[in-house]
Amino acid sequence: MFVLLGLFAFFVMFSVLLVIHEGGHFIAARLFRIRVEEVGFGFGPRLKTGIFRGTPWAFNLIPFGAYVKLFGEEGGESQHRDSFAGKDLMEKLVVVVAGISGNWILAAVIFSVLFAIGMPQTLLDIVGSDFGHVTISQVVPSSPAQTAGIEAEDEIVRLQQGDEIVVPKNIGQVQEFVLGHLDEEIIITLMRAKTGERFEAITTPRSEPPENEGALGIVFSGQRYITVPWYEAFWHGTFFTARMSIFATQALVQAFQEAISGDIPRDVAGPVGIAVLSIDAVQAGAITLLILTALISLSLALINAIPFPALDGSRAVQLIFEHASGIKIPQRILEVVYGTGLAVLLLLGGFIAYQDVQNFVLPRFF
Description:
Blueprint: H1 2-31, E1 36-52, E2 55-70, H2 89-117, E3 119-120, H3 121-127, E4 134-139, H4 144-147, E5 155-161, E6 164-166, H5 171-179, E7 186-191, E8 198-203, E9 218-220, E10 225-226, H6 230-260, H7 271-284, H8 286-304, H9 312-325, H10 331-365
Antiparallel strand pairs: 1-2, 3-10, 4-5, 4-9, 5-6, 5-7, 7-8
Subcellular location: Membrane
Transmembrane segments: 93-117, 286-311, 332-354
């Protein structure tokens, strides 16, 4: 049952993300009075067509994704006022990047909603959290932490060893500090949850603790959810999306570097892998599914911004080059370049799909 629901969620999620992307192009085109020759939902043979407020539309056989066809998009009608080719550079660029913007804005909206209803701390920790402190859920008896007077539910506010001071925002920062000062006396500033009182505990992390106890003998709490007032959620969501964009861009650059060297990252997931993740997300609940949707929407925005043939980024670079140089690239050359780029992307997608089967499907279902 969860498998069917997960596959349905994957199908709906990807369709919505693609519709949002094409919707960005559509809205920008209408804003600049560019004639939209057709708005299509799905691909393949047409099932039903019509006209809505002067815009032709079509529902196609394969109900997956969408497309927008603009008048003059191929550059042959530059004399027409309602042609894409007849617009100035900035208007063209806005239309081209509007799809990217649509996916980015959707991610920001979803993250804003999550901040209002409960954003998982572990997701914030990916880019460095600015919310709350690290909470201790358990203290091992006779451990350095218990000897120093630390109790369960205490929050770690500050760590100090000599002149080094750390204000931890996540568990990883605490662990890194402690492991860096084994067998050294450290000062831990904590806040007692019951009273709100702050106090200092002086203790020494063990370099050879008993099995499964750790250097201090403390266990951190599980998943925490950060909630902010609804009127602050939008700003936190937008700022988090910007930080996540930087993090994801760095990850994409690293993935491309590894791919160029012949080492395709095993943790790269394509449609098959995302479908499996959708099944897990349905089982985990609505918040996890929202997170997955936001992350994929952000990924689509960033990938489409890459100046690779067949992606929006390359179209923007082409427009800037033609405007700056005064050289109009022949349409037949563009068709070859973009066609080759699309073929490369399809081959890469096929390879990633094969890798998805090896990494996600076979270990899970067979």
